């Protein structure tokens, strides 16, 4: 059942070229280009004209929501908010008729996410569910939506469901941006192609497996980790830190890289590994200068970079390179080494990576 892998987590990490492909298949045609998503198509007008979009989710799914916020705002020019379902449901939020609420959930059973959309539905919002488990409660309560088709995820730490959520949310954004005209035809075409190329590129990232295993051995005894990113990679930093906490019980924090100087930089010394998610994008120069700030304080730098980057390897202690990709789709690549790093540190510490202590696969209590 683990398909020859030692753990479900590793199997699921390695499944990602296929799960992302399955998610795009039958929906994305990069040649035309065209994106067909029947559930979303039915509500395309309402989404295009929505005064705003609110994404509700928890945990890793919330991180996918944060990336989607940046993608939707960029391509659709619709204001997006991302909320923890637990906060949203209890704080009497303003929800108006016509608002679009997107619930993101692997299990489709997370109690807080479910109640959040039930409440919003009563207030007249349109509810879209981006869910992995077919026929789950969140899928049933939603007006429409799109399944992530990642297959059963057994490992408690979400991996393949996350990249599938990103693939679906990106397709939704491109589709709406294209329909609305806020995304130029050239850009739509280019991004469809970028998306179609992702499964193959994920395959290439997975070839770094041994290098990441070696990194894990080197850093496994660190007491704390910091994960930093900017732009589309900021939520990837949050996700990397969450993976490490769950699987290795090492304290880790994710931050927007530029926030460092507003406090957390005080933590940096020669014992602190700092993971930079720093693939080539519009923020590259900025993140390089954040890296210099860490280096000046003797932090150990591990950087996820784009192949061919000549600058960061001169600054970082260790680098893992991923193939070049448009910044909008890059998180589906940059997160993979972070999943593997958490996995291999967990293994090096002899922990139960598939079933970390205190955690359940789906949180059906509030
Ligand atoms: O099933 P959901 O996507 O609604 O679950 C949300 C979170 O409970 C989940 O992502 C959790 O944070 C994972 N353990 C992360 O790896």
From TrEMBL:
MF term (GO), any = glutamine-fructose-6-phosphate transaminase (isomerizing) activity
Reaction(s) the record says it catalyses: D-fructose 6-phosphate + L-glutamine = D-glucosamine 6-phosphate + L-glutamate
* Record's keyword terms, sorted: Aminotransferase, Cytoplasm, Glutamine amidotransferase, Repeat, Transferase
Q: Where in the cell is it found?
A: Cytoplasm
Domain (SIS): give its ranges. Answer: 43-182, 215-356
Catalytic activity, EC: 2.6.1.16
Please name the catalytic residues of this protein: 361
- Major subcellular location class: cytoplasm
Q: What does this protein do?
A: Catalyzes the first step in hexosamine metabolism, converting fructose-6P into glucosamine-6P using glutamine as a nitrogen source.
Q: What is this protein called?
A: Glutamine--fructose-6-phosphate aminotransferase [isomerizing]
Can you name the source organism?
Ilyomonas limi
* Gene name tied to this protein: glmS
From which residue to which, out of the full length, is covered? 246 to 611 of 611
């Amino acid at each position: 059942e683990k398909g020859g892998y030692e753990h479900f987590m590793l199997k699921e990490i390695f499944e990602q070229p296929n799960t992302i492909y399955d998610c795009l298949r039958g929906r994305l045609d990069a040649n035309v280009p065209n994106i067909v998503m029947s559930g979303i198509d039915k509500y395309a007008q309402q989404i295009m004209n929505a005064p705003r979009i609110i994404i509700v989710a928890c945990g890793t799914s919330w991180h996918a929501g944060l990336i989607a916020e940046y993608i939707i705002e960029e391509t659709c020019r619709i204001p997006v908010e991302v909320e923890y379902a637990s906060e949203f449901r209890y704080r009497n939020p303003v929800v108006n008729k016509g608002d679009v609420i997107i619930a993101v959930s692997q299990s489709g059973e997370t109690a807080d996410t479910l109640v959040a959309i039930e409440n919003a539905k009563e207030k007249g919002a349109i509810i879209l569910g981006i869910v992995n488990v077919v026929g789950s409660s969140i899928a049933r309560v939603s007006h429409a939506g799109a399944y992530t088709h990642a297959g059963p995820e057994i490992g408690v730490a979400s991996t393949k469901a996350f990249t599938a959520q990103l693939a679906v949310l990106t397709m939704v954004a491109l589709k709406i941006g294209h329909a609305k005209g806020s995304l130029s035809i050239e850009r739509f075409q280019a991004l469809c192609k970028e998306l179609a190329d992702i499964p193959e590129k994920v395959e290439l990232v997975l070839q770094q497996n041994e290098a990441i295993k070696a990194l894990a051995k080197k850093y496994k005894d660190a007491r704390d980790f910091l994960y930093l990113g900017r732009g589309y990679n900021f939520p990837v930093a949050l996700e990397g830190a969450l993976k490490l906490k769950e699987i290795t019980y090492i304290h880790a924090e994710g931050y927007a890289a530029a926030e460092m100087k507003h406090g957390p930089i005080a933590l940096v010394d020669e014992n602190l590994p700092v993971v930079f998610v720093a693939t080539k994008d519009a923020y590259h120069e900025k993140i390089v200068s954040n890296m210099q700030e860490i280096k000046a304080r003797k932090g150990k730098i591990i950087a996820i970079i784009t192949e061919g980057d000549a600058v960061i390897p001169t600054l970082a202690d260790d680098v893992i390179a991923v193939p070049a990709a448009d910044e909008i789709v890059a998180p589906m690549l940059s997160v993979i080494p972070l999943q593997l790093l958490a996995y291999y540190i967990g293994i090096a510490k002899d922990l139960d990576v598939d079933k970390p202590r205190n955690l359940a696969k789906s949180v059906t209590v509030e």
